[in-house]
Design brief:
Blueprint: H1 2-42, H2 47-69, H3 83-86, H4 95-102, H5 120-140
Helix pairs in contact: 1-2, 1-4, 1-5, 2-5
Length: about 140
């Protein structure tokens, strides 16, 4: 029964964090898609313009997330000089995160404690990949070249 308890505990710790991350990615993708479609309508373009907007927006978001995920200078083994550097602070939730927290399924799941949450850069990376997937879907499934 020990292995079963270990798996259950692992799922209890990690599944809520990934539910919040996927919900955040969904909110970002929906927002970017709405902006792309609005931009396309206002400029008199077609779905090709919206697809390109999503494609380039996804790559820009991917570059930003990758830069934030890049390891910082120095190693984790070096001693820390001050208390402020030793204690991790949790940034307040941004607008997109508050929206993502308010919609299902994130609304139904207890929010994980800060050390177990997916980082903001990780959520942005997931949103970028999902945005590129939507762009790819528009191109392949809908036949927009």
């Amino acid at each position: 029964m020990g292995a079963r308890d270990t798996v259950a505990e692992w799922l209890r710790q990690h599944v809520p964090a990934w539910i919040y991350a996927c919900t955040y990615a969904f909110v970002v993708v929906v927002a970017l898609t709405c902006v792309a479609l609005l931009f396309t309508l206002l400029t008199g373009g077609d779905l090709v313009r919206a697809k390109l907007f999503l494609f380039f927006g996804g790559w820009i978001l991917l570059a930003i997330a990758t830069a934030q995920l890049w390891p910082q200078r120095g190693s984790e083994d070096e001693p820390v000089d001050s208390y402020d550097e030793a204690v991790e602070t949790v940034a307040p939730d941004g607008r997109m995160q508050r929206i993502a927290n308010a919609i299902p399924p994130a609304r139904w799941v207890r929010r994980p404690p800060p050390p177990e949450r997916v980082s903001m850069a990780g959520k942005q990376f997931l949103a970028a990949v999902a945005t590129l997937a939507v762009s790819f879907f528009i191109e392949t499934a809908l036949g927009v070249a």
